Each structure stands twice: as structure tokens, then as C-alpha cells.
Amino acid sequence: MYHTLLPSLKQLACDAGDVIMQIYQDQNHWNTQQKSNDTPVTAADLAAHKLLVQGLQQLTPDIPILSEEAEIPDWQQRQHWSRYWLLDPLDGTREFLQRNGEFTVNIALIDAGQAQLGLVYAPDSETLYWGSAATGAWKSQRSGPGLAINTRPTADKLTLLTSRRHSQHESAAIAQLLPADSTNNITTLCLGSSLKLCRIAEGQADLYLRLSPTSEWDTAAGQAILEAAGGELLQLPELNPLPYNSKASLENPGFIASGQKRSNWRSISLPD
């Protein structure tokens, strides 16, 4: 059913990106504040949140919405949700503030604890990614024609993606997980937001290890796209697909995203 909503969802993601870019172009309107968890929030986060929530309420009035920029329903209520929208209206607020363009609009549909459908829109480059198990994974320039994307086969030389603020920690952890003679065959690139998962999905990178905290809205849309493209995102140390709405906390465990399933990455474990 929800795949019939894709045209409307794609337009909604782009509209949210337009609102973000209007504010991005004028720092006088950023109105940056610090949230209780010491992360920044701007007028762009809140404007995109408002637009997305209003749009989704019109499209699917019976499906609950969970957004980073709204009060989080308590676990007693959420545990009964079988299907809901999970939003990060502006993923990469710090990238927004640094004006490096590496921020996205994330829309995911969670069904039975799994990310079933995901859309990621990068407004600075006007690049849209979307995917589900039923449709496969796709990429387009805003409203242009879609191009099917897939992960690439595991090669001798790997491209590892890291976040901009945790790259040394994650790179060191990867080095401990690899044979000593293989680390010379790794290229490490830093990238913000859920663009990391999209890069793996489109075959431009191979791995992303994250050991520092993230929230479920940071990963859901990108995970749906990555899995639709042939990759996987596994929680550590269990190496099961990252679940959603399975506990009171919305904080993710550490995880590894890989372009290839059933590869040797399924046998890794966290270093002591």
C-alpha cells in the first residue's frame, strides 16, 4: 500500500529540503539552540519537521509519527505501534551549521520493528535516494528520472566511511578487526549524516562502523535504502539487523553497515 505513496513522499522530502535551504542561505534566520542532550537545533530543523508532519498527517492520518524534533511518546504508548513514520527532519545539523552541505531529510516507514521504506534527500545537491524491499533502491536528481542503485562486490581495496567527529575512534576499531596486513588496503573518508549509508547503497563505498551514540531516526531511512540495494546494517555485537521501537530507549547500539551480505563482516566482534 505504502509504495503508492512514493510520488507524494518524494515531493514531501524535496519540499522539506526547500524549507531548509531557504534558512541555510541566511544565517540570521538560523536561531540555533542547544537541546537537553547537548545537540544543536535550528529553525531549519523545526520548519522541516512541521512541514513533514503536516504532509504525512494528510497522506496517512492513521499512522503515528515519531520525529526527532517532537516530544517522544512514552514506551507504554509506543510499544503498541505496529507501523509508524520515523523522521529526522534535518539529519546532520552540525553539518548544516558548518555549511558543508552534508545534511539530509530522512523519512522512514517502520513496520513490525523493521525499516521497510526509506527516503533520504540531500537538499544542497538536490539528490534523492529511496528504497524498499519491494521497489529496490533508487537515486535521482530531485524530480528527475530514477536510476536503480546497488552495492558493489567486496573488493581487495575497501572504502571505509566514518563520521566527521568520531573518525579516529572508528578507524582504530576497524584496524583491530582486520588482519594486520589488510589495513593498507583501506581508504577512509569522512562524511556527515545518512549520506554514508547512501554512499554504500550506490556502490561508492563499502563499510561504515559506528560505535558512538546514534538514535533510531539517524539510521532508519538509510538502512531501508541500503538493504534494498543489497547491503546490510547489523547491530554489534549480536550481528542482527538493527531493530526499531524494540525498547524504551531510542538510542542505537553500535553497528556496522556493509555493502555485501554473508561476507566475512558477519563474523566480526567488538574488541575488548
What does this structure look like?
This protein has 272 residues and is an alpha+beta fold. It has two domains: 147 residues, Fructose-1,6-Bisphosphatase, Chain A, domain 1; 110 residues, D-Maltodextrin-Binding Protein, domain 2 (3-Layer(aba) Sandwich). The protein is 28% helix and 26% strand. The protein has a seven-stranded mixed sheet with strand order 3-4-5-6-7-8-9, with helices on both faces. It has a five-stranded mixed sheet with strand order 11-10-12-14-13. A hairpin with a 2-residue loop joins β5 and β6. α6 packs parallel to α7. It is globular, with a radius of gyration of 18 Å. The N and C termini lie far apart (45 Å). 42% of the residues are buried.
SSE topology:
Elements: H1 6-24, E1 33-34, E2 40-41, H2 43-59, E3 65-67, H3 75-78, E4 83-91, H4 93-98, E5 104-111, E6 114-122, E7 127-132, E8 136-141, E9 147-149, E10 158-162, H5 167-177, E11 186-190, H6 195-201, E12 207-210, H7 216-228, E13 232-235, E14 255-258
Parallel strand pairs: 3-4, 10-11, 10-12
Antiparallel strand pairs: 1-2, 4-5, 5-6, 6-7, 7-8, 8-9, 12-14, 13-14
Helix pairs in contact: 1-2, 6-7
Strand content: 25-35%
Q: What is the number of independent domains?
A: 2
Helix tally equals: 7
Structural class: alpha+beta
**How does CATH name the architecture of the largest domain?**
2-Layer Sandwich
What is the overall silhouette?
globular
- Total strand segments: 14
Contiguous uncertain segments of 5+ residues: none
CATH class of the largest domain: Alpha Beta
Q: What gap, in angstroms, lies between the N and C termini?
A: 45 Å
